[in-house]
Amino acid sequence: MKRKAPTATLILAITVMSGTVSAEISPVRQAEIIHLLRHDCGSCHGMRLEGGLGPALVAKRFTDWNIDQLALTILYGRPGTPMPPWRPFLTDGEAYWLATRLKEGIQP
Questions:
Q1: What confidence tens digit (pLDDT) does each residue in 11-51 have?
Q2: From start to end of 1-108, where are the E strands?
Q3: First CA to last CA across the chain, in angstroms?
Q4: 28-62 burial, b for 16+ CB within 10 Å, e for fewer?
Q5: What's the rounded Cα separation, in Å, for the pair 15 and 21?
Q6: Would you say 15 and 68 are in contact if contact means Cβ atoms under 8 Å apart?
Q7: How would residue 106 be classed by pLDDT, with cut points 50, 70 and 90?
Q8: I need a labelling partner for 14 at 20 to 30 A (CA). Which of 6, 21, 53, 82 fits?
């Protein structure tokens, strides 16, 4: 099976470098994204993000992941698994922001 991640990684990298992805996400939108994480993602990854149908979303799990890999997984999902793409709900910048928070560790 062909992997599309390298192309998506390239697109995301170009978008980030071109300044299209804004590091500025309003506090209100940040709260909405965290709510989405806790409630929508939490329905599969556990309400405390410690695992369920999907794996745990804790910082130690992402030690070997870079931010781009994590943001792309958020945006495009994981084909062949129940992990859906969240692209309809999050911009590139928001996915990148969320990926950064996940790597840092989000308190339950």
A1: 555 444 434 444 589 999 999 999 999 999 999 999 999 99
A2: none
A3: 36
A4: eeeeebeebbbeebbebbbeebeeeebeebbeeeb
A5: 6
A6: no
A7: confident
A8: 82
CA–CA distance from 91 to each of 1, 52, 54, 102, 107 (Å)? 27, 26, 22, 16, 23
In the chain, what are the domains? 27-104 (1.10.760.10)
pLDDT at 7: 54
pTM above 0.90, yes or no: no
- Closest alpha carbon to 30 in 83, 103, 98, 77: 98
pLDDT in tens, 46-86: 999 999 999 999 999 999 999 999 999 999 999 999 999 99
Here the tokens at position 107 are 């308190």
Owner of token pair 């309003």? 26
Structure-token pair, residue 8 = 């998506």
